[in-house]
Design a protein that fits this description.
single chain, 32% helix, rod-shaped
Length: 395
């Protein structure tokens, strides 16, 4: 009989030991939880008040910094081939500086022809003046000698012919002078001047060297000058964004090239017509048998300051669509779990968990639509140690 009781006794001992271990474990867990609660209640939590604030409804778009104005010059085939380029890339120029000149052989021929015509007219004028002076002397002599009226009439007729010829020569001289002035104007136009101050961005030394009236490349510029006017921002908007973004709306600009810095400005222009398909801006997507097209529209914006920015920088643009007063709390005070959003509100040093509905935000503050009232205090930067009904002290 003694041998049969031994296994049962050992089994009971193990059961008792297991129960004791379980009880001890539960006690340790409870002590730990209570200690954590006690420690949490002793921590100083930061509270912020639900308050009215102005929050902007914004839209994020992208763009690029560009010069305020770019002067682009092309070769004018009617003026001849390019004779000389006076500037180089990277050079600073002022308004009125010479950029390049043309070599026009036709104008040179015209200049020589006008010079020959002038000399010929002057010779004729001198000859006619001498004839006129001689004839006047002869008329005077004939009168002094008592010549007949027929002789005098013939001489007077010759005098009128010479005077008419002299007047004709004078008109030719005036015409030659006018042609010479027109030629000088055309010759001045053979030199192209800068219409603004800036930096020479591009110089194409090959364009225009061998151009004729019927050949050559007119599509490429020979010189481009970026003006010193304030920079602009340029970009494109979708048709949906175009309906929201309008001229004069304030913007905040950031650039990865210059971290931790912001620039203020405003939208100045939104084109009414979409970018042409040839520019490559259009996007088409196919869903089943249907094709969805998205139109893009160019926009421009100006900046209040351009310190540390350079043309070519790609930037992010936060466009302020609307601004209104609303109840708001810091975004950092909101806890999100799935589709639910809640905060911990403190009342008489006790936390109460409240679910809320939020609206727009500006990155730091979030609109409260439902769940809170003005003046309530919520925990800022809550931790997962907080719970409903927890006693706290705050600052």
């Amino acid at each position: 009989m003694q041998e049969e009781k031994t296994p049962m006794t050992k089994r009971k001992k193990w059961i008792v030991i297991g129960l004791l271990v379980s009880v001890i474990t539960l006690v340790v867990i409870n002590i730990t939880v209570m200690q954590n609660k006690k420690n949490s209640s002793k921590e100083d939590w930061e509270f912020v008040s639900v308050t009215e604030r102005k929050i902007s409804n914004t839209k994020l778009v992208s763009g690029q910094v560009v010069p305020g104005r770019v002067e682009t010059l092309y070769v004018d085939l009617s003026k001849g081939k390019v004779k000389r380029i006076f500037v180089k890339e990277g050079q600073k120029v002022k308004q009125g500086d010479e950029l390049f000149s043309y070599d026009n052989s036709d104008l040179k021929i015209q200049e020589k022809q006008l010079e020959l015509d002038k000399r010929s007219i002057n010779l004729r004028s001198k000859h006619e003046s001498e004839k006129l002076a001689t004839l006047k002397k002869n008329i005077k002599k004939a009168k002094d000698e008592g010549a007949t009226s027929d002789v005098l009439a013939s001489l007077e007729e010759q005098l009128q012919d010479l005077q008419y010829e002299q007047q004709s020569i004078n008109l030719e001289m005036e015409k030659n002078k006018l042609s010479a002035e027109q030629l000088k104007t055309k010759q001045k136009e053979l030199i192209v001047y800068s219409s603004s101050s800036g930096i020479v961005q591009k110089v194409n030394t090959e364009i225009g060297k061998n151009l004729t009236q019927t050949s050559g490349v007119e599509g490429d510029p020979i010189i481009q000058i970026a003006s010193k006017e304030p920079f602009q921002i340029e970009g494109t908007l979708t048709e949906l964004q175009k309906g929201q973004i309008l001229p004069d709306q304030p913007i905040t600009v950031t650039s990865k090239a210059v971290p931790n810095k912001k620039w203020k400005g405003k939208i100045t222009e939104v084109n009414e017509y979409p970018v042409s398909d040839e520019s490559g801006q259009g996007i088409s997507g196919t869903a089943g048998n249907q094709t969805q097209n998205i139109s893009y529209y160019n926009f421009k914006a100006t900046l209040e300051t351009q310190a540390d920015l350079s043309p070519g920088y790609h930037v992010s643009i936060q466009v302020e669509l609307t601004q209104k007063k609303m109840l708001a709390i810091p975004r950092s005070s909101i806890i999100e779990k799935g589709d639910s959003k809640y905060v911990y509100v403190v009342n008489n040093n006790v936390l109460h968990k409240k679910t809320l509905t939020t609206g727009i935000g500006d990155g730091e503050w979030t609109e409260v639509i439902e769940g809170l009232t003005a003046g309530e205090k919520v925990v800022n930067n809550p931790s997962d140690r907080l719970y409903d009904g927890m006693e706290v002290k705050g600052k």
